[in-house]
């Protein structure tokens, strides 16, 4: 799995985030080298980020990020018809955003290491209901070829455990050709039954992988 560095602007679009959504504490789960936590924190939001790769430390991540970004670019070139470039304008601008975002992430990781926790789903080292909103981009569903239904259920329930208000997951299709994930409907029903949450898959104002234009939104009812 490549280290990727989506930007704050991409997160705002992928998760259709408003300023009100970022009130309280937000967790970026499987954050990789995304600059979302850095940029949102600089703007006054309270954000934590988790990823197992953070155990490697900033120097190791800085050493591998340029190669990972080039490998991702080559993958996009080799399968150009699977991607929609409208949101970015051009492949060159896409790559600039990745580099800018990764640079911002690395600077913030060095300046504020306490914001970045080494942790891998389906376990998060956080107390029950300790954050308001959990965001998770490009791990669940994207990697459903490697992680099965039971793993996804455990991962979603873990994110629901630590969230007071909501969990949002993007995208909802497999990596590559972007086929739908066959167990999504069953998973939604199970999560609703276990947590009492309401789930929905609304469209979002972002599409890069063709057909990946919806998020899973899990609204928890706790304390209401
Ligand atoms: C494709 S990257 C996405 C990074 C970031 N969310 C973004 O959109 O740019 C997937 C990330 O998931 C992380 N990851 C892999 N296995 C994980 C797990 N079990 N729990 C949490 N994160 C994991 C990887 O280290 C990687 O940084």
UniProtKB/TrEMBL annotation:
<protein>
    <recommendedName>
        <fullName>Methyltransferase domain-containing protein</fullName>
    </recommendedName>
</protein>
<dbReference type="InterPro" id="IPR029063">
    <property type="entry name" value="SAM-dependent_MTases_sf"/>
</dbReference>
């Amino acid at each position: 799995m490549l280290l990727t560095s989506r930007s704050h602007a991409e997160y705002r679009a992928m998760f259709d985030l408003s300023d009100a959504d970022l009130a309280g504490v937000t967790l970026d789960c499987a954050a990789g080298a995304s600059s979302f936590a850095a940029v949102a924190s600089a703007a006054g939001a309270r954000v934590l980020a988790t990823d197992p790769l953070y155990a490697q430390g900033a120097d190791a991540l800085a050493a591998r990020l340029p190669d990972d970004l080039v490998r991702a670019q080559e993958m996009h070139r080799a399968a150009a018809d699977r991607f929609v470039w409208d949101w970015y304008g051009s492949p060159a601008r896409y790559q600039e955003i990745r580099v800018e975002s990764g640079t911002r992430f690395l600077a913030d990781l060095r300046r504020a290491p306490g914001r970045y926790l080494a942790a891998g789903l389906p376990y998060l080292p956080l107390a029950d209901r300790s954050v308001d909103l959990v965001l998770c981009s490009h791990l669940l569903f994207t990697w459903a070829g490697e992680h099965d239904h039971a793993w996804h259920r455990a991962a979603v329930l873990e994110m629901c455990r630590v969230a007071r208000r909501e969990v949002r997951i993007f995208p909802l299709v497999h990596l590559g050709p972007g086929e739908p994930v066959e167990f999504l409907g069953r998973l939604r029903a199970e999560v609703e039954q276990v947590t009492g949450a309401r789930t929905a898959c609304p469209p979002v104002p972002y599409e890069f992988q063709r057909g990946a234009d919806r998020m899973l939104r899990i609204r928890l009812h706790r304390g209401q």
